[in-house]
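Working notes for the structural subgroup meeting. M.R. asked for a predicted model of this chain before we commit to crystallization trials. I am recording the input and output together here so anyone reviewing the notebook later can reproduce the run.

Input as submitted:
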Amino acid sequence: MVAVRPDEQRIVITGIGLAAPNGNSLGEYRENLLEGRSGVSDYEIRYFGKTLAGICDFDALKYQRRKEIRRGTRAGSVGIYCSHEAVTDSGIDWDNTDKSRVGIYIGVTEHGNVETENEIYQIKAYDYDTQYWTHHHNPRTVANSPAGEISLNLGITGPHYTIGAACAAGNAGLIQAVQMLRLGECDLALAGGVSESIHTFGIFAGFNSQGALAVNDDPTKASRPFDRDRNGIVVAEGGCIYVVERLSDAKARRAEIYGEVVGYAMNSDASDFVNPNDERQAECIQLALQRAELGAEEIDIVSTHATSTTTGDVQECKALQRIWGDKGGTTALNNTKSFIGHAMGAAGALELAGNLPAFVDRVCHATINLDNIDPECNLPGIVANQPRKLEKVDYILNNSFGMLGINSVVIVGRI
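Returned structure, recorded in token form:
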């Protein structure tokens, strides 16, 4: 059983706004996950050339003017769109909300690469004369930019910052919000992660030089976690922002609640720049379970991090094996990257969001493109290619790991 806390210390999710390669609302996104529709397509970027990517197609002008879009960043636009959608979804009386008591905690993998690459490309036409360098560059590239753009657009005067946590960042943003709400630093939080990664050629070139960039004649088949024929990551952009608040406040305004954050953990491998460490990942999962006062057998769905790399998928499966052993058949395992690619700083937040509706419909969406499972990834409970109806869904565990050995786990419970 999960620990009993007073309502003022219980933190719940009451709003979700997202932009994903296969959907721009939770309803659309969830439908495409259940129907097996991929959001990966052909893509071409200067200097690198033709590749594959998860590309978002949301209406940036819904909440911004053209001038604001030109001045700001793609990551900022993603965050602004998701934040507005989350606030609307939460049903909160935004006009009468004290904006000085709202916190913004946004996870990012990297920020500023897109803008710097663009400026260097632009001044190339002027023989690299830096007098033509834009005066917008510094505010675009400071680390707090995505969160700051949300603050400016929504008039939020409470604390805002980004959390640089590589591909564990989406979970980290949510974890930060939970901590700040429990400390009384804010009364409401916008939290999650954003990514503009597909707009920098450097990330494609970097993964390619590592031999970790996916290739496939059919873009929709390229992202294939756990599959024997997987050959790398599909880079994706996107974002997911949650409205997070205390249960006492949510009850007072009779809000619809998606779930309660009942446990979380973060730790470090301290062993390699890139290669993951299954022992440290398992320790992170175990710590989250301990904080939630749950046994592994009580988790109904594990949303895996697996990115379709040869080593990474196997290491995560070893970590899961350490926790569940051979008795994990009652816990369903799935993977969202198989649909949308790897959305970097947004990955953890988007992947959790895609599973939260299971509290209501008790359906675990599948991992698609899992045609020939790697024997080293053949864990009991993996949901392959077709959704699975479950007897119950009370707890969802969300894995999200990143480079430099940063690990994060979030557990959400049904209310």
